């Protein structure tokens, strides 16, 4: 087992020992949170219910001519910091997707990075 020496918290003047970065007391607030805490709280749940009422069909299925009930709101541009991210609540960054399309998108499309221009290779 490799031994991990503890270092001092990087917060100026703090003497707490940590494995890296800062101690619990001084962790930066924008630290990545576990998924359950990344902003998907009751406010989001409420918003999602309203959004899906207004946008009941999966938009990715729709372009293929399929009518599938949407169950998730997808962030078109993936968000990094939960509700702290300005894109989290941006309505034009939301689209209604079904679960299949959502997992397809997060697995395949988002992996390419959203900076890449969408190309339609059939043309
Ligand atoms: Zn500290
Ligand atoms: Zn779909």
Automatic annotation (TrEMBL):
Highest taxon of source: Bacteria
GO MF, any single term: nucleic acid binding
Keyword set, alphabetical order: Endonuclease, Hydrolase, Nuclease
Domain spans labelled HNH nuclease: 46-103
Protein name, entry field: 5-methylcytosine-specific restriction endonuclease McrA
Native organism: Testudinibacter aquarius
Taxonomic lineage from the root: Bacteria, Pseudomonadati, Pseudomonadota, Gammaproteobacteria, Pasteurellales
């Amino acid at each position: 087992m490799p031994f991990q020496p503890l270092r001092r918290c990087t917060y100026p003047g703090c003497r707490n020992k940590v494995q890296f970065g800062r101690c619990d007391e001084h962790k930066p607030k924008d630290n990545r949170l576990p998924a359950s805490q990344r902003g998907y709280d009751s406010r989001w749940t409420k918003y999602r219910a309203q959004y899906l009422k207004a946008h009941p069909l999966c938009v990715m299925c729709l372009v293929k001519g399929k009518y599938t009930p949407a169950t998730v709101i997808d962030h078109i541009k993936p968000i990094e910091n939960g509700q702290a991210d300005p894109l989290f609540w941006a309505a034009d960054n939301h689209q209604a997707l079904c679960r299949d399309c959502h997992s397809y998108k997060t697995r395949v499309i988002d992996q390419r990075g959203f900076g890449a221009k969408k190309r339609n290779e059939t043309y």
